Amino acid sequence: MNAGAALTMYVMGATMVLAFVLAVVPLPTSLRRLPEFTGIAGIVATLAITVAQWGERQVAFYGELRIDRFGLLMTWIIMLSALATIALAWGEPAAAGRRPEFTGLVLAAATGMMLTVMSGDLITLFIGIELLSVSLYILCAIEVTRERSLESGLKYLITGSIGTALLIYGFALLYGVAGTTSLAGIADRLATVDGLASQPLLVAAIALIVVALGFKASAVPFHMWTPDVYQGAPTPVTAFMGTGTKAAAMGAFLLVFTGATQQASGDWRVLIGAMAVITMVVGNVGALMQQNVKRMLAWSSIAQAGYLLMGVAVGTQAGAAALIYYLFAYVAMTLAAFGIVVLREREVEDGDRLAAFTGYGRARPWAGVVMTLALLSLAGFPPLAGFVGKFLLFGSAVDAGMSWLAIVAAVASAISVVYYLRVVIVMWSPAPEDQRPERRLQVPRSVAGVATLGAVAVIGLAIWAQPLIELCTDAARALMIP
């Protein structure tokens, strides 16, 4: 059993339950923030445990969970995203005020994400994906008095259910081919049984799993839900979906393809590569036409999924390491950008529209600098972390003989410069003289802290890239050990 190895799961599970209990227990006004503080404490404790567990792989519950460097490093990305989400929601109507269960739902989703990236079995992987999905359905619709929020939750529920059906069907076919649900067992069977890797049933299983995980990762052509859901959901939830969910989906991609079905890479490399290409192109072209910053970031998230899928498509250790590094950079620059959007939404009505950002950099120079760094990094400008991540991803594609993938990615990155710089230019332009006076509010320290730390990380991850790259390489190496 080795149940003690799953200590991170126990801590997150207990914190989640406690946060839900505190949400329904009447608390005095002085303790109304107790669910948030409980969630923060649980996340910090989980991060501390992951540091203590860093080392050789441990297996718990007869292989259902694999606690290795890959799962632990991905857990850091997920926990930091959850921590930032709680901070961004501080004082939001959807959070501690009218909806005290907000923190519990964030923790539930984070637990599902962590279970996903630490899975050693298809069943555990499915449970993790479903736990994060159901929690996010509720989080998207948590502002029950706002029609867009309810619409967002319903759309995500419908498309998510389709993805779930395809995923479980794909897993069933994969079990039919390999005769086991263990990821290590599948890898062993494909490596040792002659002709198994070329079975038509395996090809069908791979196609279904690619489609299902494509829904979760917002990959084209399974992206249709993303812009509406991202725009309608509360912005802290949108930030969480764009970071934590993306990390969990890419972790699942790596576990199933770079890990379990590596021997059948001839069946899925081109398929995932083609999906990455159309995702990058459609995502960037769609973002060009947006006049809403939040919706633009949603289309940008689709394009970023294409870049991340490059690391899966190459099917190598270098590709996996580049993907993990880029996830760290992507989380930092996305949280910084959404932090400024949250701040602007609290100051003016329709604060997520591009017009609302006119002259905002001049009015709040620190916010302008943070947003500029985040968007330039997303576009891949050197020497920021986004550039380093894309350089590693493009290089891994070239080394794997998929230069065509790197060329398309470079062209797509050039297209993205247009809409990222458009926001930057608007922010630093003079505001119109007839613009209505703003409702100036005190900057929430938690929101400002998330945005500022994200911008600092965009620079820091580039300056000290080598230590993180080494950690990512260790994680990728653990991923490829059966």
In words, what does this structure look like?
The chain has about 475 residues and is an all-alpha fold. The chain has one domain. It has helices at about 5-25, 35-55, 70-90, 95, 100-115, 120-140, 145-180, 185-190, 200-215, 225-230, 235-260, 265-290, 295-315, 315-345, 360-365, 365-380, 385-400, 405-430, 445-465, 465-480, and strands at about 60, 65. Residues about 95-100 have low confidence and may be disordered.
* Oligomer description: single chain
Shape: globular
Mean pLDDT across all amino acids: 87
Distance between the termini: 19 Å
Largest beta-sheet details:
2 strands, antiparallel
Strands side by side in the biggest sheet:
1-2
Number of helices: 20
- Estimate the strand proportion: under 5%
How many domains? The number is 1
Radius of gyration, whole Å: 21 Å
Portion of residues in helices? over 70%
SSE class = mainly alpha
One letter per element, helices H and strands E, the order comes to HHEEHHHHHHHHHHHHHHHHHH
The number of E-state strands comes to 2
